[in-house]
């Protein structure tokens, strides 16, 4: 006989964030199903289908190469690979957290019918973005081969970078999802914040081009270290330095812990349905 599904009890006195983790583990199969559903729905009636996921970063690369290498004459070696290697993390992060901001409506509708941990929706958003990130490695590989850049052994570090980046992204996703569940304007505000955040992260330009008096913005930006985590092995051909690794890991752990506790507290405050 199968085990009965867990039932939310607002009178529980266990640590809420521990209970949330247990519920998420019990419903781990739901995350897989949500990822499968989103991928199927997104490409079911798409003309370009999966090809668009690979074409989009190429078009962005061509645009940024023209602007920063031709028009502004930015002196960066092999700019297409430089840009794409940084864009990989940013697209993963922006797609996952932006999607998480739009999921509370679906979570509420499903939550009216059955109990389920709403954090599963955030994890599914990260999973969908992860699938797109793997597909986006194809255009990067094409550009690397086309420009004659070497493929380094350091590329094998990419799964580690993805795990660290996923932890940071999940934490931010939980924060955005929780706030969007209570305030309808959060999604639009977050999209604007993402645009600003993109340009204060050294993706389209090199840090050395930023005046010294403004580099503190980049230095205290956690996304800077996560971008370097991807760019070092893919573009430079070496593993990230100890400082980059330390700040990336600490930033990701802090994001995940803060996001999970904040989400769990709101679940306890408002019950299983926001």
Shape, per Cα inertia axes: globular
Beta-strand content bin: under 5%
Task: Output the number of helix runs.
Answer: 11
Low-confidence stretches: 1-8
Whole-angstrom Rg? 20 Å
Order of helices and strands: HHHHHHHHHHH
The pLDDT mean sits at 82
The largest sheet is: none
Structural class: mainly alpha
- Gap from first CA to last CA: 32 Å
* Count of domains: 1
Percent of residues in helices comes to over 70%
- How many DSSP E strands? 0
Key features of this structure:
single chain; 274 residues; mainly alpha; 11 helices; globular; disordered N terminus
Question: Would you kindly provide a written description of the structure presented here, covering whatever features stand out?
Answer:
This protein has 274 residues and is mainly alpha-helical. It has one domain. The chain has helices at residues 16-26, 28-44, 50-71, 79-101, 104-111, 119-147, 158-182, 186-199, 215-219, 222-236, 242-270. α3 crosses α4 (79-101). The longest helix is centred in the middle third of the chain and has 29 residues, at 119-147. The two termini are 32 Å apart. Residues 1-8 have low confidence and may be disordered.
Map the helices and strands:
Elements: H1 16-26, H2 28-44, H3 50-71, H4 79-101, H5 104-111, H6 119-147, H7 158-182, H8 186-199, H9 215-219, H10 222-236, H11 242-270
Helix pairs in contact: 2-6, 3-4, 3-6, 4-6, 4-7, 4-8, 4-10, 6-7, 7-10, 7-11, 10-11
Overview in brief:
With 274 residues, the protein is mainly α. It is built from eleven helices and no strands.
């Amino acid at each position: 006989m199968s085990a009965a599904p867990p039932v939310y009890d607002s009178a529980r006195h266990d640590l809420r964030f521990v209970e949330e983790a247990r519920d998420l583990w019990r419903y781990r199969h739901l995350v897989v199903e949500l990822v499968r559903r989103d991928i199927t729905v997104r490409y079911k009636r798409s003309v370009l289908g999966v090809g668009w996921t690979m074409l989009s970063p190429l078009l962005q690369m061509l645009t940024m190469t023209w602007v920063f290498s031709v028009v502004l004459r930015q002196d960066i070696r092999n700019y297409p690979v430089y840009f794409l290697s940084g864009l990989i993390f940013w697209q993963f992060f922006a797609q996952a957290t932006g999607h998480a901001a739009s999921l509370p409506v679906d979570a509420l509708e499903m939550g009216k019918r059955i109990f389920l941990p709403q954090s599963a929706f955030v994890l599914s958003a990260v999973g969908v973005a992860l699938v797109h990130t793997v597909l986006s490695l194809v255009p990067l590989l094409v550009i690397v081969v086309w420009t004659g850049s070497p493929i380094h052994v350091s590329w094998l570090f990419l799964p580690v970078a993805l795990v660290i980046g996923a932890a940071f992204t999940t934490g931010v996703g939980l924060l955005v999802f929780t706030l969007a569940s209570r305030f309808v304007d959060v999604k639009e505000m977050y999209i604007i914040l993402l645009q600003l955040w993109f340009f204060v992260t050294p993706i389209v330009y090199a840090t050395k081009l930023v005046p010294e008096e403004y580099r503190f913005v980049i230095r205290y930006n956690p996304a800077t270290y996560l971008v370097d985590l991807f760019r070092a092995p893919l573009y430079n051909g070496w593993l990230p330095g100890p400082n980059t690794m330390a700040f990336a890991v600490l930033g990701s752990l802090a994001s995940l812990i803060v996001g999970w506790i904040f989400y769990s507290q709101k679940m306890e405050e408002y019950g299983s349905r926001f």
